[in-house]
Amino acid sequence: AEGRDLIYPPNRLGDPVAAFGADTYFGFFGWNESFAGPDGIEKFRAAYGKLLDDFAKTYPRDDAGSPPRFVIVSPIAFEPTGNPNLPAGEAENARLKLYADPAADVA
Known about the structure:
The chain is mostly helical. It has helices spanning 16-20, 41-58, 90-106, and strands at residues 24-27, 69-72. The chain has a two-stranded parallel ribbon with strand order 1-2.
């Protein structure tokens, strides 16, 4: 699976993250990245860590430069539907688990 690094794209209207001054950020990464399989885990871990580090440096929580809080949400499990035309979910959940652990590591 060809993907792109976890980046925050520039905005033509300015920087909404800075404009709102949030002190807590939620990260929902890992599901799309899991399609790279085991070979993509280290790239995912490095990109996720870099994203959090960049946010911490660019968007401090206060004027003293305190780092923001991050809530890391792991990829959700695949739920079998019982439909014979859809996957049962075992392979999908095994692949997602590979990416849930690195998400927890960067937290």
